[in-house]
Amino acid sequence: xxxxxxxxxxxxxxxPEYVLTNDELSTMVDTNDEWxxxxxxxxxxxxxxxxxxxxxxxxxxxxxxxxxxxNTDPLDVDLVxxxxxxxxxxxxxxxxxIAAATGLDNAFNFDIGAACSGFIYALTTGxxxxxxxxxxxxxxxxADKMSSIVDYTDRTTCIIFGDGGGAVMLEPTTEDVxxxxxxxxxxxxxxxxxxxxxxxxxxxxxxxxVTNREHFAFQDGKxxxxxxxxxxxxxxxxxxxxxxxxGDDITYxxxxxxxxxxxxxxxxxMEVDDAKVMMNIERYGNTTSGTIPLLLWxxxxxxxxxxxxxxxxxxxxFTWGAIYLKWAYDPK
Length: 332
Description:
The chain is of the alpha/beta class. Helix content is 31%, strand content 24%. It folds into two domains: 5-176, Peroxisomal Thiolase, Chain A, domain 1 (3-Layer(aba) Sandwich), CATH 3.40.47.10; 180-326, Peroxisomal Thiolase, Chain A, domain 1, CATH 3.40.47.10. It has eleven helices and 13 strands. The strands form four sheets. It has a five-stranded mixed beta sheet, sandwiched between helices. Strands 8-13-12-11 form a four-stranded mixed beta sheet, sandwiched between helices. The protein has a two-stranded antiparallel sheet with strand order 2-3.
């Protein structure tokens, strides 16, 4: 019996219309365009505006576009996994809302929360359902409305994050394409360096937590930078070594868009030329779970069947990992 691989057979993204530029941010906090670009590579980011607009809005639009692009009957989808740290509600899951709004009535669905590593965790999880032979069509969504948990008086975090998301379709194949290998790791000792203190069961919302501004993302930038550079780069290099790949074999590095300096360090560790590094951080900033599907969406027209991609991410938790996949289709 031939081995079943899980292949990405389509990708679609969505970003809100509102563009928050560095110049506008400079009217809100003590910063400027040159300072932001030199430290992060970010020029602008998208913000989801409007009353009652949650992460599901972006996930729904991404899934609608994906279903249309892949000519998929919504009733044929077996599973939806949504990676997010900004769910619409503590419960129900944002994946529940996305599935209900897009007619995926036969799909079971759940959320995965692993911060900026969430999408690769979800992608590997979805692939396992396909590889086992259990499911034929799995949709993996990565989306976050980071503006909902960003303190726009804190210049160390508000310059980094934006809103956006994307979705991919996973389907079985017996060809030598699809997800070939994955490696994941986590270390809870990093929890204090990148987190949101209040809002969970340990520190439920109260007048005190709101007054103390504890419902915003906190980041110890220097520590996170150090761990991200080391671990994201190491795991990208490890998965290449485990699959006997060199920088010449890689068509594209698909890195989480945390910070251009982190991405550059990862590429150097892998010995991959800059031309082979997917980048769109300058337009979207760090959309957390949304960065990788947005990259694949932006670069889809450049990808060809058989291209070797290494996806790498690092996030709060700490969480990190890498995926090696072979692209499954030519430009459509």
